[in-house]
């Protein structure tokens, strides 16, 4: 993994967010990938844990922020990029300076960067999380809660931390048309987020029927293979150019 960093084998792909009210792409989530010279593509779940345990996650995270912001600078000002930050990264006192430097070097405003943190991160085995999150929010960065519903789902943390967006985990979205419990959870999270003044994103949308359900439920944004698979930065740029050229979004 250390050699992979040195040899630039790690790279980013971008998966779009679709605004269901306006039927347009509003941003992308930056997703890390590893192209190994012998093993081919290594999925993140096989190396992120190792990166965290070894401490390499800090240098990787800095590169991800820098690359994502550089790509963001090539996109229109109403487009955002979301970057995942792990619990281990919040231990690093330089995280805030890394975010600030990445934004400054790329010349993009903080409001266009979104930091995604999972419930396990926000529920804090690390005391420093709350202060760092609040500092990022004060900087103007958007904070979102990823995979909502899979961890402790403590509503206290929705109130205590400055979240602006909640992402409904794909496990609920995938089953919501077949399982009444999942349907109830999805609707409840959408209503809860709306009542608390937060935006909500449904992850893992893979069919037209799922998309229609979310539109009816007044979910603001959606993400998933039906909307768009992870793509290169150049493909994302072309997608945005095409959408602004009058093309109808494929999922419409």
Q: Which features would summarize this protein structure in a list?
A:
21% strand; eight-stranded mixed β-barrel
Structure, explained:
- With 252 residues, this protein is an alpha/beta fold.
- 42% of the residues lie in helices and 21% in strands.
- The protein contains eleven helices and nine strands.
- The protein has helices spanning 2-6, 44-54, 57-72, 95-106, 119-122, 129-139, 155-160, 170-175, 180-195, 208-216, 233-243; strands at 10-19, 24-36, 40-42, 80-84, 113-118, 142-148, 165-168, 199-202, 221-222.
- It has an eight-stranded mixed β-barrel with strand order 1-2-4-5-6-7-8-9, surrounded by four helices.
- α3 (57-72) packs parallel to α4 (95-106) and α4 runs parallel beside α6.
- The model has no long low-confidence stretch (mean pLDDT 89).
Biggest beta sheet attributes? 8 strands, mixed, barrel
Helix content: 40-55%
Number of helices: 11
Question: What is the spatial order of strands in the main beta sheet?
Answer: 1-2-4-5-6-7-8-9
**What structural class do the secondary elements suggest?**
alpha/beta
Radius of gyration: 18 Å
**Pattern of helices and strands:** HEEEHHEHEHHEHEHHEHEH
How much is the average pLDDT?
Answer: 89
Strand proportion, as a percent range, falls in: 15-25%
Q: How many β-strand stretches?
A: 9
- The rough form would be described as globular
**Assembly type:** single chain
Instruction: Give the termini distance in whole angstroms.
Output: 41 Å
pLDDT under 50 segments (min length 5)? none
């Amino acid at each position: 993994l250390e050699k992979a960093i040195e040899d630039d084998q790690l790279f980013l792909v971008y998966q779009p967010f679709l605004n269901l009210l306006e039927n347009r792409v509003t941003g992308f989530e930056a997703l890390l990938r590893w192209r190994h010279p012998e093993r081919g593509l290594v999925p993140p779940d096989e190396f992120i844990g190792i990166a965290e345990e070894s401490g390499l996650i800090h240098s990787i995270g800095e590169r991800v922020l820098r690359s994502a912001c550089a790509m963001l600078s090539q996109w229109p000002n109403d487009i955002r990029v979301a970057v995942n930050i792990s619990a281990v990264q919040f231990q690093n006192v330089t995280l805030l300076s890394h975010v600030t430097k990445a934004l400054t070097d790329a010349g993009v405003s903080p409001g266009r960067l979104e930091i995604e943190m999972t419930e396990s991160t926000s529920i804090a085995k690390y005391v420093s999380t709350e202060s760092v999150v609040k500092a990022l929010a004060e900087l103007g960065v958007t904070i979102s809660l990823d995979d909502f519903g899979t961890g402790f789902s403590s509503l206290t943390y929705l109130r205590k931390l400055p979240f602006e967006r909640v992402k409904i985990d794909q496990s609920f979205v995938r089953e919501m048309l077949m399982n009444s419990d999942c349907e109830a959870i999805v609707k409840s999270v959408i209503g809860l987020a709306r009542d608390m003044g937060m935006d909500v994103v449904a992850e893992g949308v893979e069919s037209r029927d799922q998309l229609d359900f979310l539109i009816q439920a007044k979910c603001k944004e959606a993400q998933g293979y039906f909307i768009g698979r992870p793509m290169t930065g150049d493909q994302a740029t072309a997608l945005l150019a095409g959408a602004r050229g009058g093309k109808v979004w494929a999922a419409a």
